[in-house]
Amino acid sequence: MSNPTVNYFAHSFIDRCADKRKDSTWINDKLKEDGSVFVLFHIDKPFVYVNDSEKMFSLCKFNYSQIKPFLDAKCNYVFLGLEYLKSSNGLEIISPYSCSQSYDRSSSKAWFVIETSGFDADLEKVSSIFPDQGKFFEGNFLRLMAIQDLHESSIIAQARSILCWIDRNKFCASCGTKSRLDDAGSKLTCTNSDCKSNNKALNKHVPSNIHYPRVDPVAIMLIINKAQTHVLLGRKRQFPKNMFSCLAGYIEAGESIEEAVRRESFEESGVYTDRVIYHSSQPWPFPSTLMIGCFAYATSEELNIDQDEIQEARWFSLEELEMILENRHPESVTIPSERTIAHQLIKHFSKHRPKL
After folding, report:
1. Using alpha carbons only, what angle is made at residue 239 by residues 4 and 5, rounded to the nearest 5 degrees?
2. Which of 169, 188, 244, 318 has a Cα-to-Cα distance from 158 of 20 to 30 A?
3. Would you call the peptide bond into 287 cis, given omega within 30 degrees of 0 as the criterion?
4. Nearest-CA neighbor of 276 among 219, 227, 318?
5. Would you give the distance in Å from CA 121 to the centre of its chain?
């Protein structure tokens, strides 16, 4: 099944340059380059410009001279990657890894994120340094889906996930010693040379004392009946009135994506499923989830809802899906916004069912 879907938060335009992270000289040179771009976060809150008329956000960008006080104060920073100049060859560009002719790699600028709480824990005081440029985002984090530029949304996803991981893993899980941020923010290392996770001479099978950014995989699935005429949608108690969505759940240890889809489908709705087809994925930086979107084909239709997980589940016909997508369902049923993978799964099945 051909699937051109690129979900919100997944429009990355930078080369993460993993091979450069260990090169402290190269990183320091990039920090001071005139063309380097810096974005600011206060722990998990990005510094944004708010377009009040459209209720949309833009990510504020800074240069080295503006952020130097934060670096002087030893604030944590993370190298996000390099943005290359796009080639003028008319190619449709998906990512810097899609085609060797997509970008001019001889011309680039580095992107960094600075976490400012090390400068001052008071968010308002840090915001006041740039009174005319914006403010740190506050409120429901789902409002971050109102970032206007799709490329900027990918920067938000990458930066917020990493900074939340750094904030929650300040100490070694094995010995409790404070961890050190290494490789331009891409890993945390225990500083205790006697840590049991660091002494490979004692046991070569002990866990490493190096920690890497965490990603929590979630299976989200659109369940389709045998005849492919109806889909199963559910609603949680915290959803807005009349909103339904795809079922979803965390993938557990030692479990494949397909196994998780079948288990979660059964646990939440009582419906048995067999065939599972992958659709697309979406980073979900709240704080570090990866939504893995699938279609699941049901072998039963009777519902036995887990009330602890969902409040209600219903089978919706193709005709109803069309009405929902066009905002004309007679019961005013809605689904999550088009910037969610749930919306894209529902829309894809509604429009392309014969191609599944």
Report:
1. 0
2. 244
3. yes
4. 219
5. 25
Helix (H) or strand (E) holding 86: strand 77-86
Residue 255 has pLDDT above 80, yes or no: yes
Block residue for tokens 């004692």 = 202
* Side chain identity, residue 209: N
Query: What pLDDT does 1 receive?
Result: 43
270: exposed, middle or buried (C-beta count within 10 Å: 0-12, 13-18, 19+)? middle
Residue ranges of alpha helices (H) inside the chain are 24-32, 64-72, 123-127, 150-168, 257-269, 318-325, 341-352
- What is the pTM for the complete model shown? 0.93
Q: Which SS3 state, helix, strand or coil, does residue 343 take?
A: helix
Query: Which residues, 6 or more positions from 100, have their beta carbon under 8 angstroms from its beta carbon?
Result: none
Q: Residue 328 pLDDT > 90, yes or no?
A: yes
Helix (H, G, I), strand (E, B) or coil at 41: strand
- CB distance 288 to 13 below 8 Å: no
Which of 82, 50, 233 minimizes the C-alpha distance to 146? 50
- CA 203 to the chain's CA centroid: 36
- Please spell the DSSP secondary structure of 164-219, one letter per residue: HHHHH--B-TTT-PBEEEEGGGTEEEE--TT-TTT-TTT-TTSPPSEE----EEEE
For residue range 162-201, list pLDDT tens digits in order: 999 999 999 998 899 999 999 999 999 999 988 887 766 4
Length of the chain: 356
DSSP state of 89: S
Q: What is the DSSP letter of 297?
A: E
The residue written with tokens 């969505």 in the block is 245
- Counting runs of H as helices and runs of E as strands, what totals does the chain give? 7, 16
Here the tokens at position 58 are 């833009």
Sign of CA dihedral 332, 335, 339, 345: negative
- Residue 150: name the closest of 287, 12, 40 by CA: 12
Three-state DSSP class for residue 61: coil
Contacts of 79 (CB under 8 A, 6+ apart): 17, 20, 21, 27, 30, 110, 111, 112, 184, 185, 186
